[in-house]
Amino acid sequence: MPKVQFIDPKEVRKAGEVTFKPIPVNQYNKSVEEEKANFSNEDLVRIYHDMVVIREFETMLNDIKTKGEYNGIAYNHPGPAHLSIGQEAAAVGMAYTLGVEDFIFGSHRSHGEILAKGLSAIHKLTDEQLTEVMENHFDGKTFAPVKANFKGTTKELAVRFLIYGTLAEIFARETGFNRGLGGSMHAFFTPFGVYPNNAIVGGSGDIAVGAALFKKVNRKDGIVVANIGDASMACGPVWEGLSFATMDQFNQLWEGDMKGGLPLIINIMNNQYGMGGQTCGETMGYQVAARIGAGLNDDQLHAERVDGYNPLAVIDAYRRKRKILDEKRGPVLLDILTYRFSGHSPSDASSYRSKEEIEAWQAVDSIIWFGQELEKAGVAGADELKKIQSDTTDLISWGLKLSTNDEVSPLMDMEKYPELIGEMMFSDESVDSMEPERTPEVNHPMAENPRVKQLVKKERFAFDDQGKPFSKIKQYGLRDGLFEAIVDRFYKDPTLIAYGEENRDWGGAFAVYRGLTEALPYHRLFNSPIAEASIVGTAIGYAMCGGRVIPEIMYCDFLGRSGDEVFNQLPKWQAMSGNVIKMPVVLRVSVGSKYGAQHSQDWTALAAHIPGLKVVFPATPYDAKGLMNTALQGTDPVIFFESQRIYDIGEQFHEGGVPEGYYEIPFGDPDVKREGSDVTILSIGATLYRALEAADQLQDKYAMSAEVIDARSLVPFNYEPVIESLKKTGRLVITGDASARGSFMKEMASTITELAFDELDAPPVVVGSRNWITPAYELEEHFFPQADWIIDAIHEKIVPIKGHVVSNNFTTTELLRRNKNGI
Amino acid sequence: MASPVIMPRQGQSVETCIIGQWYKAVGEQVKVGDILFSYETDKASFEEEAKEDGELLAIFYEEGDEVPVLVNVAVLGKAGESVDEFRPGSVSREEVSEEPEAEEQQATKELSVEPEVIIANEAGEGRLRISPRAKVMAEKLGVSVSKVKGTGPQGRIIARDIEQAAAALPQMTRLAQEKAATEKLVAGEAETGIGGRIAAENLVEYQSVYGDDFEVKKLSNMRKLIAKSMHQSLQNSAQLTHHMSADARRIMALRKQLKAKLEAGELNQNITINDLVCYAVIQALKKFPQVNTHFLGDSMRWFKKVHLGLAVDTDRGLMVPAIRQADDLSLEGLSSQLAAVAAQCRKGNVNPELLKPEAASFTVSNLGNYGVEMFTPVINLPQTAILGVCTIVPRPKDLGDGVYGFVPMMGLSLTYDHQALDGGEATLFLREVKDQIENLTI
C-alpha cells in the first residue's frame, strides 16, 4: 500500500460497469499463397520439415512404448512418454519466430516444443556458435557420439545433436542433455533457450513468470513463453502466476525504464483434454480458454484464440504479440487450439473420446494439410516432401540406435560412482555476485541509509561490562543481523531482488526490511500479491535464469500454500538439470506464535525432509547474520527459518557482540551455547532460550550441569559436535517448537542413536510441541515445550533427579496412550 | 562325543600356563600324538599332544593367553558337535572368583545407602536393564553388572550406577596393595589387573633422580621367581661363607686321563672337571649328613640319599635342576645325568618338579669357567648349604722341604645356614670336600 496511491472513496464508490473488448477467435485466414510474401520457400519447407521431425520422433517413442520396436530397432523404454502427436503445428508455430535469447518453459508433454525451439535456434545460430554450444555442453560428452564419423554440415550436425541429446535424456543416458537425470518430462537445453519442462501440471505457470521478471529486472533481451496446458488453467499456482504477472505496480509504480509489463506469453497449448478430462464441456467452464485473459487485467492479456492446426496462424499471432511485448505491454495470453491423436500416455485407451472424433482430427492433420498447401502453392514438390519424410525416418532411426547403444550412451555408472547423484544435489558454490560486471542499482550509498545509521548506535552485545543487559531498544537484535546481511548483499549483487507480502513500505511484517525501501528502487524490492505459490515459483524462475533472490512468505504456516514450489520445484532443478542450473534462492520463512493454530507452526521437518533444500534456523543475532551471509553467498536453495519470538533478542553469546563487518557461519555446524557436563540439550530455533532456562534451573536446583547446543542448521548437519558432547554427558534431550511427531528432532534422535549408541545412558528424548492445534497465546505454555518440560523429561526418561517433582507426564504409559490416540 | 582338551597340570606348583603356539587350527583333523599346542610355565615349555582322534572343534584361548591348569583349552570331536558345554568361564572370572564376592557386597552396601528411591530392576524374565553407556563403562571398569542396582528410569542401570560400583572396587589388587606397602613401590603406568586395577606387577619404584632416563621393562615370570627366592633366602636364613682352596693337580690329571679315554673311544661320556667336583662333593656329603639337609625352622630333614642340585645358567635365567639319588650313580652316570638335565634346562623342557628347591638336598654352583675366584653363593632354601666352585688359579705352595712352587688351586666357597650348622661343622665339611678333590679316586 504505497502512500502515493490515494484510494478515493468518491471515485471507487461511483456507479458504472466493467466492459470487455471482444476476444478474437481463429481470426487468421491467409493461405500459403498469400503468405509467400512473408516467408521464403525455404522457410515454409523448414516449417514442414520441423513438424515432420517432431511427428516422427514421437511416433518412434509411441512405437517403442507400444510395440517394443521402431523401424526394426528393438528397445524397451520403461519410463514415461507423454506424446503430443497431432500438436506439431502449434509447437513449430510457437517456436518459429523465437530467438535463441527467448526462453520457453513447458510441461510433461513438451518433446515437440523442445524440438521446435531447438530447430528454430539451430536455424538462427551461426556454425561457430553451434559448434561452441555443442563442444561446451558437459565438455562435449553429448556431442562426442554425434560427431563421430559425421561428414555433413554443422547445421545438420546440430540437428543430430538435438535429436540425440533429447533422446539420450529421455532414455536416462549419461550423455543426455541433463545427464539423464531429467528424463522425458523434464528434458531441456538452455543454450537453445529451452528451459525446464515440468511434470507437475501448471508447474511452469509461475516459474515462467519469474523468468520474465528476471529478463525485465536485469534488462535482458528476449521474451519468455510459458507452454502450459488448457487443463492447467485450473491450477492455483497458475492463477497465482498470472496474478503476479499482471500486477499494476509494473505500470504504476516501477520507475524509469522499468515501467511496463513483463515480456511474457502464457501460451496455452490447448489440446482440449486434461489427461482424459475434457476442459470444454466437462472439467472447466471457460469454453474458450482465451476468455481467462479478460479476468486478469484491463488489457485482457491481449488474449486470443489461434488455430493451432495451422502453423502460419500461430506464427502470425507471435509476430503480432511480440510487438506488444516490445512495447512493454505484456503479458500476453494465447489460446493455441490443437488436438493430440495420441493418448495422454501409451497406456491410454482413449475411453473418454470417440473414434470418430480422433478420425475427424486426423482428417485435418496439420502435416498432411500443410504439405498439400505447399504443393498447391508450388513451394515444394511431392518428391521433396517425401524425401523429407524418408530422411527424417533415417534421422530418427539413427538417433534411436545411437541413444540406446549402451557403449556410447551409457547410463550413469552408479556402481563405480555411487555418489554421483548425491554430489549433484547441491552446487555448493561461493559467489559474491551473480553478475559481477554490473553495478547494483541503489538509491544512496549504504552509509546514508537511515537504518544503517541507526544501527551504529545500537549495542551489538546484549550486556554491559557488569553483565547487565542493555534496554531492549538499545540492543542490536536478530532482525538487525538479518538486515545487515541482506542490505550488504543488495549492494554487492545487482541481480539480487527481494519480494513477498508487505516487503516494501511496511518493511516486512516483522521489520527486517525497514530501511531497505529507502535504499532500493522498486524493481529490487516490492510487494507481491498474497500468493505464496507465485512468490516462491517466480523466485525459482528468476534464479534459474541466473539471478539471486530472497522470496519471503511471512508465516511458516503459509508454506503449504507454496507446497509444490517448495517441495517439487525449488529442491529438484539443480540435480534434475545435471547441475546445469543453479538455484540461489533464500526463502525466508517466519515461525510465529501467539496467533493460534494457523500462524504458529514450526514446519522445519517438512523442509528438511525434501532432498535438495538447505535448512537453517538461527536463534541469535550473530548466527542470523552469519548464516544469512552464507545463504546469500551460496548458489543453493535455502529455507531460512526465523522465529517471531526473538526478532528483538540481543546477542548473548558471541564475545564482542555481532561483528560490524562481513562474516559467514558455515552451514551444518551446531554451536555450543553453554558448556556443561551432566546432560546435553540440543535445541532447534527459538527454543534455545527455554533450553537455557532449563539449564539454569538444573544447575540452581539440582547441581546438574547442562550443555546447551543450538542446532542452527538442520540440513546439512554435522553430528560430530553433538556426539562429542554425548561422550561427556551420555544424556540427550532434543527440543524445538515443532509438534514432536515426525519432527526433525525425531530424525536427530534416531540418527544420534545410530551414531553413538554406546555413549547413550538413556534414549535421546525429544521434547517438542504437542500434536495438537496451537491454542491461543494464553494457553501456549501447554503446547510449546517449556523449561520444566525439559527437566521433567530428564527426570522421567533419562536420570531420576533427587527431589524433583514433575508437573508434566512424560511416562512411557502416557507416550503409548498418546500414540494410540494419535495425539 | 566331543571331548575337551585341558591345559595339563605341570607339577604341583604350577597354577597357570601360557599358550605358546597352536599347531592345529579349528576345523583341522587331528590324530593321536599330533602336537596340538605348546605352552609354558614359569620355567619351562611343553607341547601338548592329542590324546584322541577327531576334528579340532573349538579353541578357547589364543596364543599368549594365560590359562589356569586343568581348564579346557580346546575341544576335539566330530564336526557339528556342540562345544558350548566345554566352554570355560572367562579367565578373569577364574581369577577373581574369590575377591569379587566381597567387593560386590561392599559395592551394593554402598549403593544401598544411596538416598535415591531405588526401583527394583523390573525388566523381568531375568533380563537386565542397562543403558549402552553403562554397559560399556562396566566392561571397562570391571564392574559386574549383575548385582548393581539400577537407579535410572524403570530401574535401568545407568552410568552413575556403574561409576559408584566402580568407586567401591579397590583401585589396586590386594596383592598390589600389600606389595606396594611393604616394598615402597608406587603404581606404574600400566594397569593390567581386572577392571583396569593396578596389579602387583604394575608397581614400580619411583626414581625421581633419573627422571625418565630409563625404560621400564617387565620381569619375566622366571626372573620374578628367582628374585623372590633369592631375596627370601637372604631374609630368612643366617648365611655366611667360608672360602678354601683345593689342590687341583689330581683332578686335572684325572680329567686329562678321562679325556684321553673319550678320544680313544674307551669312554662314551665327556666327564668334565665339574662332574669330578660334584662326584667329590657327593662323597663328602655322605660323610657329613648334617650338611645334606633342609632346615625347616623347628626341625630338619636329614636326607638318606644325596639329591644334588646343580645351578645351570640359561637364556631364561638361573635354573637349579636336581639329580635325584646322585650318590647311587657312578662318575659316568652322574656326568651323563648332569649333562642331560643341563641340556633340558637350556631347552626349556625340564621337568618342573626337579626345579623346585625342595627337590635337591644340596646344591653346587660352579662359576669356575667364568674365572670367578671367590664368591658367596646364595642358599636355595630350604637347603642348608651350597657350594660355590671357583676357577683354578696357580698359587704358591710348600712342595716339601721348604720348596715352594706354583700349584693350580681350585677355590671353594661354602655358604651355609648358621641356623643349621656351626662354623666348625661347616669348616670340617669344606675340608672334606677339599680332601676328596685332592685325593679323588675313581
What does this structure look like?
The complex is a heterodimer of chains A (823) and B (442). By secondary structure, chain A is of the alpha/beta class. Chain A has a 7-stranded mixed β-sheet, with helices on both faces. A 6-stranded parallel β-sheet of chain A has the order 4-3-5-6-10-9, with helices on both faces. Chain A has 3 domains: 32-411, Rossmann fold (3-Layer(aba) Sandwich), CATH 3.40.50.970; 446-643, Thiamin diphosphate (ThDP)-binding fold, Pyr/PP domains (Rossmann fold); 671-821, Rossmann fold, CATH 3.40.50.920. Chain A contains 29 helices and 22 strands. Chain B is built from 10 helices and 20 strands. In chain B, the strands form 6 sheets. In chain B, strands 11-20-19-18-14-17 form a 6-stranded mixed β-sheet. A 4-stranded antiparallel β-sheet of chain B has the order 1-8-6-3, with no helix packed on it. At the A-B interface, α28 of A face α3 of B.
Largest interface: A-B, 14 and 17 residues
Strand-and-helix sequence of chain B, N→C? EEEEEEEEHHHHHEEHEHHEEEEEEHEEEH
Assign the CATH architecture of the largest domain in chain B: 2-Layer Sandwich
What is the terminal separation of chain B in angstroms?
60 Å
Which percent bin holds the helix content of chain A?
25-40%
Region (Disordered) (chain B): 84-110
Domain Peripheral subunit-binding (PSBD) (chain B): 129-166
Enzyme class (chain B): transferase
Biased composition (Basic and acidic residues) (chain B): 84-95
What are the SSEs and their pairings?
The complex is a heterodimer of chains A (823) and B (442).
Chain A lengths: L8 H4 L19 H4 L5 H26 L2 E2 L2 E2 L13 H9 L6 E4 L4 H14 L2 H10 L6 H5 L6 H17 L23 E4 L6 H14 L6 E6 L6 H10 L3 H4 L11 E7 L2 E2 L2 E2 L25 E4 L3 H16 L5 E6 L17 H8 L3 H11 L5 H22 L16 H5 L25 H7 L21 H13 L6 E4 L15 H4 L5 E3 L4 H13 L4 E7 L7 H7 L3 H4 L9 E6 L12 H6 L4 E3 L4 H13 L4 E6 L27 E4 L4 E5 L4 H15 L3 E5 L2 E3 L4 H10 L2 E8 L4 H13 L8 E5 L17 H12 L13 H10 L2
Parallel strand pairs in A: 3-4, 3-5, 5-6, 6-10, 9-10, 11-12, 11-13, 13-14, 14-16, 15-16, 18-19, 18-21, 21-22
Antiparallel strand pairs in A: 1-2, 7-8, 15-20, 17-19
Helix pairs in contact in A: 3-4, 3-5, 3-14, 3-15, 4-5, 4-12, 5-8, 6-8, 8-15, 9-10, 9-20, 10-20, 18-24, 20-21, 25-28
Chain B lengths: L2 E4 L9 E7 L6 E2 L4 E6 L4 E5 L4 E6 L6 E3 L3 E6 L13 H6 L2 H14 L19 H10 L17 H10 L5 H10 L2 E2 L15 E2 L16 H16 L2 E9 L1 H16 L8 H15 L5 E3 L4 E3 L5 E3 L1 E3 L2 E3 L2 E2 L7 H17 L14 E5 L18 E16 L2 E15 L5 H16 L4
Parallel strand pairs in B: 14-18, 18-19
Antiparallel strand pairs in B: 1-8, 2-4, 2-7, 3-6, 4-5, 6-8, 9-10, 11-20, 12-13, 14-17, 15-16, 19-20
